[in-house]
Amino acid sequence: MRIAVIGYSGPIDKDPVKSLEEICVQTGRVLAQKDHTIITGGRDGVMELVARGAKEASGTIIGVLPKGARGNPYNTINLDTGQDYLVRSLVLIHAADMVISIGGEVGTLFEIVTSYAYQKPVILFRGTGGWTDRIAPTLIDGYYLDNRRLTKILQISSIEELMLHI
Amino acid sequence: MRIAVIGYSGPIDKDPVKSLEEICVQTGRVLAQKDHTIITGGRDGVMELVARGAKEASGTIIGVLPKGARGNPYNTINLDTGQDYLVRSLVLIHAADMVISIGGEVGTLFEIVTSYAYQKPVILFRGTGGWTDRIAPTLIDGYYLDNRRLTKILQISSIEELMLHI
Amino acid sequence: MRIAVIGYSGPIDKDPVKSLEEICVQTGRVLAQKDHTIITGGRDGVMELVARGAKEASGTIIGVLPKGARGNPYNTINLDTGQDYLVRSLVLIHAADMVISIGGEVGTLFEIVTSYAYQKPVILFRGTGGWTDRIAPTLIDGYYLDNRRLTKILQISSIEELMLHI
Amino acid sequence: MRIAVIGYSGPIDKDPVKSLEEICVQTGRVLAQKDHTIITGGRDGVMELVARGAKEASGTIIGVLPKGARGNPYNTINLDTGQDYLVRSLVLIHAADMVISIGGEVGTLFEIVTSYAYQKPVILFRGTGGWTDRIAPTLIDGYYLDNRRLTKILQISSIEELMLHI
């Protein structure tokens, strides 16, 4: 499968990203070990740490970048979409079969909403802060962003639980 | 100003849209009376009722449509963007100076998030249900979708209050 | 009908635009007189002169702009699509029922090709230079950009001839 | 480098694609041997043959697909952009550092024009028919699509000549 990992951008040596280092690196590693292709927004933060973990496990990581952005050093391939960061996110999400969310500001919220609209299953890695945690209590019946029930949004809180879904 | 109105799609003679008829028609009317150009997603539901109100007050209404969709009969101009409904929404929001939200399912949530990301002020018409109400308690300090505080999301609950902002 | 007019950008008091002033203003005028909505890329050059002619005849002119661009003073409505100038052109062409081309550099060529791909009939105003003239000899059987014959590209060389098609 | 190869779609066992088999397979092979990442539109025709050649030489091939399209079996990674085939082509071209064109109908012309607009160097593989050959005589000073001279469009007519540029 192609699995997108979305979440906080920002420097990896500062919070909130720093505290998520182990979760991110492990997520990348287990995805690669299960031979999934990892797709991210290609830059720093959660994206970089996940890519680092995936690369250690010899995984393939595609960075789907907004116009002119630079990919992190762990991406196997950088794809500069030439578009703004929202259009870039539409392409990124559509390219994935499943989406894992870790922390995240409004860009991550945008991607969670896009995943649901494009009917891509989402896994919220709970306890990682940001919109990954804040969207959870709004879900209808614990799973859906609206009454159309387009796809399920699941919640996990450990790498072990993640492995049951990938 | 160009003011986008977003919200529920669906038949105007059935709930949840039917109960919002007066709010929608009045919103369209006051926007037109103040000489704003109204921009909507162009179809039925809230979009149609707002356009009807605006047309009664001789307003200009632009329907920014997804590929192949048909505009409601009150639009002054229908613009078929040729793109899917999410890309269409990016164009629609970017074209507006301000956004008013009434009820709404995931498409409306997508547009609220896009408005914030593109730094367009949003007015939530509270009490109209859907994501317009559900997004409110998630706002940081009552105004923001994330810590970057890109633009303010305001809340009103009557046409009188709306008129203070337009 | 919604009719897009495409062509040279650039200052209207300098060639190549200056020499096309009469053709552009008259094109705008006759389109407005026949009650067509005029759609352009919204900026200077051919777009501005066509909009001026249309406005003199009380026409409606929509400027479909790339991110952050400023519309010319004759547009009835400016729509900032928020996207780069190529994505903007996809939206502009899709929104039109027919396309008229006057002169033009690579942006105009892009729009002629897009019109054909989206199956929108194109009218080349011959003798106006640029890609409007340069594309003509490449047409298969005088009408088509490729063997799929997706739509006809017609050629005219006067306002009188134009009026037979609008 | 990331090098896009564009050209005819269609069945590989029928002309015009069939006659181009050797050129396409060899192009893919030499690009892979020089460690370039190959980007294509991901489907059949020239795209499939180039991918086959690249795969034989253990290259990495990314197929950038329009919504819902299926990639050919030689792609290393398929990216479904979720967008129509023109928006897809904007992303595909922007992701490349250089573009090689072999034959092609209007989609290829669209991509040649996009490459020039996004300032990506283009190499026309002459003698392969379609727009790759038909665009050549229109070039200003033999290299440019317009007077802005945004990037050079080169012409080659053998694999040996191609190797001088990659």
From TrEMBL, chains A, B, C, D:
Pfam family, one: LDcluster4
GO cellular component, one term: cytosol
SUPFAM superfamilies: MCP/YpsA-like
PANTHER family named among the record's database cross-references: CYTOKININ RIBOSIDE 5'-MONOPHOSPHATE PHOSPHORIBOHYDROLASE, LYSINE DECARBOXYLASE-LIKE PROTEIN
Protein name as it appears in the record: TIGR00725 family protein
